[in-house]
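ARCHIVE RECORD
Type: protein–small molecule complex
Small molecule: zinc ion
Source of inputs: curated submission
Record status: active
Notes field left blank by submitter.
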Amino acid sequence: MPELPQLDHVAYLKEALALARQGQAAGSAPVGALLVSAQGEVLARGHNRVGQAQTADHVGGASVAHAEMDVFFQVGKLEDPETLTLYSSLEPCLMCGGASALLGVGRVVWATADPWGGSGRLLRWEDHPAMQQTQVVPTPDPALEREGALLFAPEAKRAFPEEGWALWQARYPEETQGL
Ligand SMILES: [Zn+2]
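STRUCTURE (tokenized, with ligand):
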């Protein structure tokens, strides 16, 4: 495992949540992500763009236009990926977690768990050599976890099948109440 720098997870996750709100304001799902260097420099900021047109600058339109993919497409080829940290407002899905592992990103940190589609349990899958290279830091801040759950809960109810919403209700009973 490479040495990863001490970064202020809370500060970057706050920015991921702000990006999630930007995505929501643009008509997409409220998920935001950013990629941060070992020195703490933000290399790219992204948000979900599923509801937006694709442009030369941004992935969009297709249902794979998730916040993390937006970040990866913006950055292009990663330099020293093992030194980088990906922050997301929501636990990355299988595609985005898989892309992070494939690219060799050193660490993935998220504000809020996704008990339906999250890939954290697979990123920690120690039998898979690609996954071993990526460390995961799930929900390091309870207040931000709750904030992200409140933000994403309506989308979870809309987008996920019944079983997925039941998992959200079980994990976040207060944040899903009344929806
Ligand atoms: Zn995703």
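CURATOR ANNOTATION: The pocket of zinc ion is lined by residues 66, 68, 92-93, 95-96 (CB under 6 Å).
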